[in-house]
Amino acid sequence: MASRALITGASGLLGQWVLHHWGDTAIEPVPVRHADVDLLVPGAASDLIGRSGATHVVHLAWSASGRADYRTSGDNERWVEATLELVEAARAAGTAVWLTGTAVDDEADAADAYTRSKAGLKTTLSSLIEDSVVGWLRPFYVFDEDRRRPALVEMATAARERGEALHLRSPHQQHDFVHASDVGRAIVATVSHGLAGEVSIGSGSLHSVADLVTRLDTAWSADEDQQAPPPTHSGETADITRLAALGWAPTRTEEFFTHG
Asked: Is residue 230 pLDDT above 60, yes or no?
């Protein structure tokens, strides 16, 4: 039987890059978009697995990060339920499955619903992840200057277009920024090589918020009156050892920060 991979969230930021980089793997990609299937409907995930005959599932679908309310949306908890349904159906069918976490998905007491939901899902599935039954993709601070994501990139680009400087509350805080294109390649490499368990995806290097904004050709100034407290995981880098062993490297990220 030919290998087929369902890719949920195929129209999202990461989903588009995954499809772009899929290339000549031995697995046929099958995009699944919200317009095709509403996975938040109870039973939809099980039905999708049952009728697809897929050998792999790459579950990227969630509340769209491009929406202003995605961190507070009540859909976050519904996505946990839908994802658990999908995992149960995939395991029953003998289908390999990869899910998507975040750089802060070990933050059990997070203030926002999005992070709490991702952290809760990871905790619920921890034994399956640790035993490499389920793949847990863990992108760090994803950006895409062309698609103007995340909100910081949108604000910086809009300020540049207005000819204004962007006021930054935390210009010197450092994060492991990684381009969405590199994340897409990392996911394809992970799935095509059958790499399960936790897979962190980042550049393995730190760059400041100000550096990212400067590389977008946007002038900035520090907002001295509204300094932001250091966020959790500021200054941490992804352990990309497992990906590097597959020959993957964050080339688009390095190009962005080197050449701007």
From this structure: no
